[in-house]
Amino acid sequence: MEWEVVIGLETHVQLLTQSKIFSGASTAFGAAPNTQACAVDIALPGVLPVLNKAAVEKAIRFGLAIGANINRHSVFARKNYFYPDLPKGYQISQYELPIVQGGEIDIVSPTRGAIKVRFTRAHLEEDAGKSLHENFKDMSGIDLNRAGTPLLEIVSEPDLRSTEEAVAYAKALHFLVVEEIDICDGNMQEGSFRFDANVSVRPSGSAKLGTRCEIKNLNSFRFLEHAIEFEVKRQIEILEDGGIIEQETRLYDPDKNETRSMRTKEEAHDYRYFPDPDLLPLAVSEEWIKQIEASMPESLQVQHQKITAYGLPIQQANQLTANRETSTFALSTFDGAPKEQIPILANWILGPLSAKLNQENLGVAQSKVSPGQLRVLSTRVSDGTISATTATGVVLPVLWKGEGSVDEIIEKRSLRQISEAGAIEKIVDEVLAGNPKQVEDYRAGKEKAFNSLVGQVMKATKGKANPAQLNEILKRKLAG
User: Fold this and answer.
1) Residues 6 or more apart from 33 whose CB is under 8 A from it?
2) Is 293 within the bounds of a domain?
3) d(CA 345, CA 378)
4) What range defines the domain where residue 116 resides?
5) Residue 29 and residue 41: Cα distance in Å, rounded?
6) I need a labelling partner for 228 at 20 to 30 A (CA). Which of 72, 114, 211, 405 fits?
7) What is the pLDDT of residue 464?
8) What are the tens digits of pLDDT across the range 274-312?
9) Residue 20 sits in the same domain as residue 114
10) How many structural domains does the chain have?
11) 105 Cβ contact partners less than 8 Å away, ≥ 6 residues apart
């Protein structure tokens, strides 16, 4: 029998706020255990939660980015369950009325081409703490630093039909929240971006969904891929042996590359949801939504279109829009430059400048050479003031150190190349006269002799001869 895979992902996105969703405690990563859990986070008697406005704003940014409906009225609920790392005995979340509903994202499937993946909802909630097992011999520890950290749980429709599509969707969503709208740092090792994968299989052509299993807390694209592959194989083997799939929650063990049962899958009624009596319904005004929409950065898709409109190859445009920092720097560099200069500037950004940034482990936003300086430097190469070798080998490093403008560096260091034809011709004549053997070799068909003669002229001019003019004059003299 042929089987069809059906996958939906629930993605937990930690929002980039300095404080927690219902308290003023810090969200900074790496603090000593239980040093960032305040009275509100652990629900001590007499405390009340206060909603973090910045978390709501970031949820609205996400809804606008995916073309979703932003509910003007949403409600926080208590999701009741008991686990050692949940100090309240319940989690504050949203259930019946989430802040974001609907929307979609574009991905490219290796088998189905360009497809749209629909979103069911995205709701705000607080994170739980963390159980620690590794550092204890006969017991486990609890770190409540994460308790109360603001999360946006993003739920997709079961529109994915393969492991490859699930990974493509996960990467597209990661790019959106990190690079496009900047609501999450995307650090998967720190738990800022993690998945629960709902996986089922059904006979090909069937409209009825199979029984799904949820694989919890996958914190890398590779783990997501391997967990789904194992789970699909496991379910198909059970069904083909005449068994049934039990709806359950499973964990992925990367060391054994397998999923294993964690607990029977809960339904909504198991959590006994009810509106949180300590929090008023969340009201979002039209004016606030418009303000947030106006403040959102231009999408990288639009910036990609602007860059390709300059006539650059798609591959270069993709590299220049790989992240917002590079895209913004590139567009600032191109602004005001002649059209014929754009490909040269693109090469400068992706070549010498990128190498310098990598050398010092800096992002392009920390570049010590500004877009305007790079534009001038490229122009001085194009107009023949200096050679490309001098620009990359001398001017760029000095410019990086902040030792003046491009033109000041050229003048102070006497880097201006010799472009006057008469001066170059005089030196060429002297070199030819002093190297009759190499002249003879070149005329006998030995091309390497030409490069040797070029080197002699460059040495005589201390590298300042205009290369194009030098080659033209040398070839003409040798042909005479």
Assistant:
1) 132, 141, 143, 144, 145
2) no
3) 7
4) 3-288
5) 16
6) 114
7) 75
8) 999 999 999 999 999 999 999 998 888 889 999 999 999
9) yes
10) 3
11) 66, 116, 117, 119, 169, 172, 173, 176
